[in-house]
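Hi, here's the filled form for the chain we discussed.

Project: internal
Contact: R.S.
Residues: 304
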Amino acid sequence: MPDRTSVPEIARESSTEVNGLQFGSLSWGPEDGPLALLVHGFPDTAWTWRHVAPLLGEAGWHAVAPFTRGYGPTDLAPDDRYFVSDQVADVIALADSLQEPGQGAVLIGHDWGAVAAWGVATHQPDRFDSIITMAVPPPEVLTEVWLSPGTIPTGLGQLRLSWYFLFNQFGIAENRFDGLVRHLWRTWSPGYDGSADIGLLLSSLDGPGRKRASLEYYRDNLRYGIGYLAGLKPVAPTLYLHGSDDGCGRIGLARVGAGLMAEGSRFEELEGAGHFLNLERPGQVADLVLDWIGSPQGRPAQGA
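And the returned structure, exactly as it came back:
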């Protein structure tokens, strides 16, 4: 494994047009290496991978982290669509533009990026050799948690934590956006100083309509796309990582979700880590990911 203290965080910046949008992205590692596509969530940017991605690059992967639709420098969606189904289509199109199918690509998603990865694991299970999700269980857990008396308290506890879904439906979320994201970072990853990440986020969303676009992920998917989300039943083996102290998604919910994964999947609970575990524990996360996906040279992967 590469030395955790010596890996550079400098990223290459590039742009790719797919699905009618110009996507900005960051990349690390050899450009002729197999693709590791890393997808961020809210309230975050592609820079969330600045510690993990160089470690993948050092191991020989071409690690590419796009800014998802609406997050600068990527375009706003011209049709104002921010559904998970659109994000799944973006992920597939970006992967196709960066590497021919069948060349050993892997997909890694956090938060909304994890939801998109669950969508890929459901609808395009063979597109990537390996899939890794972080901080969000399979969306099927949204219904499964209410089916057993033993898990209903977990569901009720998660409802209390998910107040921001409702808050983000209204214009007050734009008006109080900066305070909102500071509160979420502070409570979702207790003890982690996210000030640098918040600065990167606000720079990415510094433009007309961009803060609203980041909130549209919640509006589109809660108002109109909830059926799509509830219908995601991943069939591709997946590595799922979740922090025990995640203030966004209860660890109990994660444990219920772990039982809904496809055969051959693996769940890892990171003790003491919060929601942004890839920033809090980059070395541990990179080790778990590399153990799952293997190295580009040898590649005994996925629980081998």
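Let me know if anything looks off before we file it.
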